[in-house]
């Protein structure tokens, strides 16, 4: 009933958008909240990438000004308790908060995502073991898992990346598995198998293009969660360590002076929120687009 | 059984209500939906009579049925009147309607598995309307529940009442839905494709039950179905719908014997029948999505359309069979009917054996019984073999084994002189080329992310590596033309095509490999009859040209009859009977085959 | 209670016990990846003599094989003896137990408000799908769901403590010196943070589940049987919408339990979370592993309850295999 009824009798099928990435992008930009999300994300990315170029001072240089100096012409946002320039620290502070989650999610998909893709396609005992393993990993909440790993190995950048990657593995595995399972029994995959297509060709040509949409949406969502996890950790003093400039860490350090100088807390807080909200709005619009498309063709 | 709410009939006039639909029109305001989906439907349901409402998917028959009892979903605008003993259901307050629903008017929808609450025991679902409309409690309630389950033929009703819907088979679920619908002795019963999706024997039993209940309880029934043959056997009057309009209505026998509207004529000729293996050729195009009010909606597809048909919207007129017909040329065409044709295909004498399947067994792990059990048959080059069976009979599994999607647990298969003992992946490419598979659901058999060109290119790249890019492109355009699709389709994505068009692409893909054996798995069961004939014709023509043998798997015995030289009947994974088509129908050997044949609704037998 | 049901319940309990055992093993191993000398050094400082280290290692029995220590730790743990802190030397259980109670109360309060509000908003929206209110609120929920917990807390703190001044700045003090009222007040902002943390997730699922149930054929069918709106809503729609909701509530209760870590730290609430952060910071491994195990216990208990509720609600699970 779906598309057929929208055509006039005997008429050739109408003009419509092509396949692949452009369609995904169009779907993303079709929803108003998707547009806001993309706009916010792009703005924050520009700030994070080019912000440091505009920083007037080194973000870690101490005693540039008297401690807790209020905003002035030399120090637009004043100085913190160690006399560091808050404005410079702010401009630098987005790098770690974006880079660590990004690398973590790439690591997640390079390991758990790929493993699940192969295991689900193979099926049988391999699939069962991989499935149970990731299910077990879910039995502790993400924050506790990360805290445990940080307690054991210390809060170095490598440990943070691995820890965030690990917490994302069960979910990513589930997304990949669900998407692949949906495709694997589809007739067009069986048609390819019956043609005698090589396994790699079936996976790459038939399954992957259909899995990419949900995975792209999930990827963006997991970066949001990574940002939330990392900034929380830094806020607890167990994430990015001093003297780095990091938005989460800045909030942790300025927390005690929240009443006297709320701006030093509020500014990085707003930045984290904007980044996370932007990514989340965009990935949600993407998820909705992907699922509505899925319904349209089944 | 006395009804406490309606006046007792006096002087032999039997009790029972009439439902009169007057000019029912339904609109869905919104973008892209300018016309009404249902236009001026006028019908009368008489007590003890079954009125059939036939039509293809999207013609508005279900919408009409729901609108008739005053049920509408958000956004629908319904006008007209639906009158039950002086009460206009469309004008009633919602509360008053609710007192009628499930009480004097009952509705049964297509899928009982969706219409029964999955997390509530069926006994409670049956009790709810009895309590509400009849105030039954305690022992009286329990007694009535058992009575109803017995009436619809649920074995062991006491225990059955305590079970959940998923613990019943599809047929039993529909019986339970029927028991709930009948629980308050309704005057009006609306059935919306109540047996669609059920096996043919189950369908026959439920239809017989319905006929019996309508007669005994003097219920006025509206039976909505796409299956003209079924309605022909079951109903007293028949209405045919096209693009939201009733195009023809009249006494069932008269309409079937001498249809007046070209659409009815073609629809009748398109339905496969077991007494005649010929079919009317399919008609081009697809129905418009909404009613067409400035000309005859069927004219663009009608082989008899005159100039006036494209400019004048025909009004319903009295027809010779005692009903009405909505066609400008009804009288001129009264003796004209479309000529059925036999689907020609290459009938090699069948000397050379192409495929041998010998004592094959397939037992999936954890399955209680084998899916395929000790199946043997031979197929000659160019032969058409039909495999028929109900769901779960193992008919599709046989195709999967031949095409190398699964390996048989036991047994031996040979194609030409190659043993089929490996999965497709490990088979020689040439073997994969010669055995091609077409699936049931065209929505799923084409990768939604590939353009039609990419889809058709694949077999050429795999099997015809010697061809250059230009030759390939030429072959794609040629095959598209062959399946009557415009060349522009090559650049479209599957979801831009209709179901029938997609299935034609799937057939084109199979024939591009130049197969010697084509495996068709229920290839038309997702399609409307007018599209089905076209698709079958294409398979017949293409295989006749290439000399390919065809194995046609279907649940539809009549359909297989129109196509196959020989038929295998399967049940529970085993072969029940194997015979030449004509012989099978003339003299069925097994009780099961006889039951299957008896269950098929017959056109023209009335 | 039939045999099939008992079997199902037994299987779920067994699986959860196994999970708990695995968590304990992994936790213990992670807490002992460092060499005993390194553990000693991290507590005593860099400038310590070899005998001091040896004495520390011996006192805390860090020289015994890991498996033997794990067995001993587990045996003590189930009896309520969580060992002695390697930093303070005090018994861990003394610090931990009162804090556990407070944290659980906090998580329960926050969850109660968050889940109730979430369901209410979700059901409210499900009846208004596609309206402007729906779009705005759903986007609002999405924005809230993208906020890290500590930012929600800081926002509440800025508004209600710094700006409006409704709550004292040093909330934690009330537990040492305040009366019952003062103690109760300290729960408000942390619980509100947890509630706001859960609410958007619950609301989104409640909205989707309710919408799906109301769009289902069986709800149409129930209406067409003439049942009252109340019966249609409760027996047919909400009953089935509850299924996906229960599992999401379970996930979010677990989320709430781990959420106390952040609010404790942020509001100076003397709960288990604050102690966990502090003991990780000071390298107090015994306290850390005891707290993680207690959290795991609570979480597994939540999962067991959710599993049982699902069994009760979903006849398919209950009667599986029949």
UniProtKB/TrEMBL annotation, chain A:
PANTHER family: OLIGOPEPTIDE TRANSPORT SYSTEM PERMEASE PROTEIN APPC, PEPTIDE ABC TRANSPORTER PERMEASE PROTEIN. Pfam families: BPD_transp_1. Coiled coil: none annotated. GO terms for biological process: transmembrane transport. This is ABC transporter permease. PROSITE patterns: ABC_TM1 (PS50928). The chain crosses the membrane at residues 36-55, 97-121, 142-166, 219-240, 261-282. GO terms for cellular component: plasma membrane. It is a multi-pass membrane protein. Residues 94-283 form the ABC transmembrane type-1 domain. Keywords: Cell membrane, Membrane, Transmembrane, Transmembrane helix, Transport. Belongs to the binding-protein-dependent transport system permease family.
Automatic annotation (TrEMBL), chain B:
It is a peripheral membrane protein. Keywords: ATP-binding, Cell membrane, Membrane, Nucleotide-binding, Transport. Residues 19-268, 357-597 form the ABC transporter domain. Its main location: membrane. It is found in: Cell inner membrane. One of its GO terms (molecular function) is ATP hydrolysis activity. GO terms for biological process: peptide transport. It holds the Pfam family ABC_tran. CDD domains: ABC_NikE_OppD_transporters. GO terms for cellular component: plasma membrane. InterPro entries: AAA+_ATPase, ABC_Ni/Peptide_Import, ABC_transporter-like_ATP-bd, ABC_transporter-like_CS, Oligopep_ABC_C, P-loop_NTPase. Transmembrane segments: none annotated. It comes from the Bacteria. Belongs to the ABC transporter superfamily. This is ABC transporter ATP-binding protein. It comes from Methylobrevis albus. The lineage of its organism: Bacteria, Pseudomonadati, Pseudomonadota, Alphaproteobacteria, Hyphomicrobiales.
Automatic annotation (TrEMBL), chain C:
GO terms for biological process: transmembrane transport. It is found in: Cell membrane. It is a multi-pass membrane protein. Pfam families: BPD_transp_1, BPD_transp_1_N. Keywords: Cell membrane, Membrane, Transmembrane, Transmembrane helix, Transport. SUPFAM superfamilies: MetI-like. InterPro entries: BPD_transp_1_N, MetI-like, MetI-like_sf. Residues 100-310 form the ABC transmembrane type-1 domain. Its main location: membrane. CDD domains: TM_PBP2. The chain crosses the membrane at residues 12-31, 104-125, 137-160, 180-199, 290-313. One of its GO terms (cellular component) is plasma membrane. Belongs to the binding-protein-dependent transport system permease family. This is ABC transporter permease. The lineage of its organism: Bacteria, Pseudomonadati, Pseudomonadota, Alphaproteobacteria, Hyphomicrobiales.
């Amino acid at each position: 009933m779906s598309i057929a009824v929208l055509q006039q009798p005997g008429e050739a099928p109408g003009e419509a958008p092509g396949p692949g990435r452009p369609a995904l992008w169009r779907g993303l930009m079709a929803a108003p909240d998707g547009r806001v999300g993309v706009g916010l994300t792009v703005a924050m990315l520009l700030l994070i990438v080019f912000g440091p170029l505009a920083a007037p001072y080194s973000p870690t240089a101490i005693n540039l000004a008297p401690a807790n100096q209020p905003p002035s012409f030399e120090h637009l946002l004043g100085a913190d308790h160690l006399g560091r320039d808050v404005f410079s620290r702010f401009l630098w502070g987005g790098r770690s908060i974006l880079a660590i989650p990004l690398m973590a999610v790439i690591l997640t998909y390079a390991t758990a995502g790929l493993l699940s893709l192969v295991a689900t396609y193979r099926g049988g005992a391999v699939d069962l073991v991989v499935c149970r393993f990731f299910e077990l990993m879910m039995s502790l909440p993400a924050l506790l898992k990360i805290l445990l790993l940080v307690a054991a190995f210390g809060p170095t950048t490598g440990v943070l990346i691995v820890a965030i990657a690990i917490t994302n593995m069960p979910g990513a595995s589930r997304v990949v598995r669900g998407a692949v399972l949906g495709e694997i029994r589809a007739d067009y995959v069986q048609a390819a198998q019956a043609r005698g297509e090589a396994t790699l060709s079936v996976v790459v040509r038939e399954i992957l293009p259909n899995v990419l949409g949900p995975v792209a949406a999930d990827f963006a969502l997991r970066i949001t969660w990574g940002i939330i996890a990392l900034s929380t950790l830094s806020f607890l003093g167990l994430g990015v360590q001093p003297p780095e400039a990091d938005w989460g860490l800045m909030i942790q350090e300025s927390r005690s002076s929240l009443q006297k100088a709320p701006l030093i807390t509020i500014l990085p807080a707003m930045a984290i929120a904007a980044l996370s909200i932007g990514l989340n709005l965009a990935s949600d619009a993407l998820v909705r687009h992907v699922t509505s498309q899925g319904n349209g063709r089944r | 059984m006395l009804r406490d709410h309606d006046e007792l009939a006096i002087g032999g006039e039997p009790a029972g209500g009439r439902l009169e639909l007057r000019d029912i029109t339904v609109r869905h305001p919104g973008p892209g939906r300018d016309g009404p989906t249902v236009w001026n439907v006028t019908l009368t349901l008489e007590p003890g009579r079954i009125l059939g409402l036939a039509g293809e998917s999207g013609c508005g028959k279900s919408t009409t049925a729901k609108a008739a009892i005053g049920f509408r979903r958000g956004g629908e605008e319904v006008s007209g009147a639906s009158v039950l003993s002086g009460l206009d259901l469309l004008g009633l307050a919602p509360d008053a309607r609710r007192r009628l629903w499930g009480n004097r008017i009952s509705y049964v929808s297509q899928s009982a598995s969706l219409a029964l609450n999955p997390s509530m025991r069926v006994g409670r679902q049956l009790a709810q309307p009895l309590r509400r409309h009849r105030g039954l409690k305690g022992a009286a309630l329990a007694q009535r529940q058992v009575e109803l389950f017995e009436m619809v033929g649920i074995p062991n009703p006491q225990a059955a009442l305590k079970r959940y819907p998923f613990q019943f088979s599809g047929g039993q679920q529909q019986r339970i839905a029927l028991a709930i619908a009948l629980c308050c002795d309704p005057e009006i019963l609306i059935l919306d494709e109540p047996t669609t999706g059920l096996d043919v024997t189950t369908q026959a039993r439920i239809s017989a039950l319905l006929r019996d209940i309508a007669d005994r309880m003097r219920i006025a029934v509206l039976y909505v179905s796409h299956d003209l043959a079924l309605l022909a056997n079951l109903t007293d009057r028949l209405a045919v719908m096209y693009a939201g309009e009733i195009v023809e209505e009249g006494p069932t026998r008269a309409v079937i014997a001498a249809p007046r509207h070209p659409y009815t004529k073609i629809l009748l000729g398109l339905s496969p029948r077991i007494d005649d293996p010929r079919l009317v050729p399919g008609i081009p195009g697809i129905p418009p999505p909404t009613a067409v009010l400035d000309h005859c909606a069927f004219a663009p597809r009608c082989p008899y359309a005159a100039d006036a048909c494209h400019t004048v919207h025909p009004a319903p007129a009295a027809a010779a069979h005692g009903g009405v017909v909505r066609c400008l040329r009804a009288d001129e065409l009264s003796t004209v009917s479309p000529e059925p044709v036999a689907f020609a295909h290459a009938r090699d004498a069948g000397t050379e054996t192409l495929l041998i399947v010998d004592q094959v067994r397939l037992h999936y792990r954890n399955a209680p019984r084998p899916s395929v059990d000790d199946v043997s048959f031979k197929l000659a080059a160019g032969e058409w073999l039909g495999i028929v069976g109900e769901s779960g009979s193992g008919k599709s599994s046989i195709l999967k084994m031949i095409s190398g999607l699964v390996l048989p647990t036991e047994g031996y298969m040979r194609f030409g002189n190659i043993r089929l003992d490996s999965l497709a992946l490990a088979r020689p490419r040439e073997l994969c080329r010669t055995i091609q598979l077409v699936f049931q659901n065209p929505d799923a058999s084409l990768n939604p992310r590939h353009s039609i060109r990419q889809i058709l290119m694949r077999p050429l790249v795999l099997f015809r590596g010697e061809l250059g890019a230009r030759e390939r492109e030429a072959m794609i355009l040629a095959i598209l033309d062959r399946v009557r699709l415009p060349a522009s389709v090559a650049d479209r994505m599957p979801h831009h095509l209709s179901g029938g068009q997609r299935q034609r692409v799937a057939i084109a893909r199979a024939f591009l490999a130049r197969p010697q054996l084509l495996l068709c798995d229920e290839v038309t069961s997702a399609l409307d009859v007018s599209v089905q004939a076209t698709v079958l014709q294409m398979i017949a023509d293409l295989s006749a040209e290439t000399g390919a043998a065809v194995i046609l798997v279907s649940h539809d015995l009549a359909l297989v009859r129109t196509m196959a030289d020989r038929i295998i009947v399967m049940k529970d994974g085993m072969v029940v009977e194997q015979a030449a088509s004509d012989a099978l129908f003339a003299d069925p050997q097994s009780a099961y085959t006889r039951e299957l044949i008896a269950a098929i609704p017959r056109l023209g037998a009335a | 209670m039939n045999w099939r049901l008992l079997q199902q319940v037994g299987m779920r309990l067994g699986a959860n016990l196994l999970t708990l055992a695995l968590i304990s093993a992994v936790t213990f191993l992670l807490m002992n990846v460092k060499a005993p000398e390194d553990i000693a050094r991290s507590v005593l400082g860099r400038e310590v003599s070899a005998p001091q280290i040896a004495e520390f290692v011996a006192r805390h029995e860090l020289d015994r094989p890991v498996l033997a220590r794990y067995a001993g730790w587990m045996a003590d743990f189930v009896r309520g003896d969580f060992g002695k802190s390697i930093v303070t030397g005090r018994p861990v259980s003394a610090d931990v137990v009162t804090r556990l109670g407070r944290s659980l109360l906090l998580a329960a309060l926050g969850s109660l408000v968050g889940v109730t509000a979430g369901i209410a908003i979700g059901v409210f929206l499900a009846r208004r799908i596609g309206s402007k209110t729906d779009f705005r609120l759903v986007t609002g929920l999405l924005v809230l769901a993208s906020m890290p917990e500590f930012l929600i807390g800081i926002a509440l703190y800025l508004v209600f403590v710094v700006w409006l001044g409704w709550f004292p700045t040093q909330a934690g003090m009330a537990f040492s010196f305040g009366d019952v009222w003062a103690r109760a007040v300290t729960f408000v902002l942390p619980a509100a943070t947890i509630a706001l943390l859960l609410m958007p997730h619950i609301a989104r699922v409640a909205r989707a589940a309710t919408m799906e149930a109301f769009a289902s054929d069986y709800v149409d069918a129930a209406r067409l049987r003439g049942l009252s709106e109340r019966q249609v809503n409760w027996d047919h729609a909400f009953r089935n919408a509850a299924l996906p909701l229960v599992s999401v509530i379970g996930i979010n209760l677990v989320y709430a339990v781990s959420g106390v870590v952040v609010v404790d730290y942020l509001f100076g609430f003397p709960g288990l979370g604050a102690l966990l952060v502090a003991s990780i910071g000071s390298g107090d491994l015994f306290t850390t592993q005891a707290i993680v195990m207690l959290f795991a216990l609570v979480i597994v208990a939540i999962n067991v309850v959710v599993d049982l509720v699902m069994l009760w609600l979903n006849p398919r699970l209950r009667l599986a295999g029949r």
